[in-house]
Amino acid sequence: MIRITRVCLALAVLAALPTAACGKEGSPPGKGPATDRLPHYQVAQGFQLPDSPTWKRAKKRGYFVVGAKEDQPYLGEKDPATGTYSGFDIEIAKMMSASLGFAPGTIRFKTIASANRETALQNGQIDYYVGTYTINAMRKKLVGFAGPYFMAGQDLLVRKNEHGIDGPQDLDGKRVCSAAGSTPYQRIKKDYPKAILIAYDTYSVCVDNLLTYQVDAVTTDDAILIGYAAKAPGELRVVGRSFSEEPYGIGVPRSDNALRFALDDALEAREKNGDWKRAYEATLGLSGVPAPTPPAIDRYPAS
Ligand code: GLU
Question: If pLDDT is split at 50, 70 and 90, which confidence band does 3 have?
Answer without folding.
Answer: low
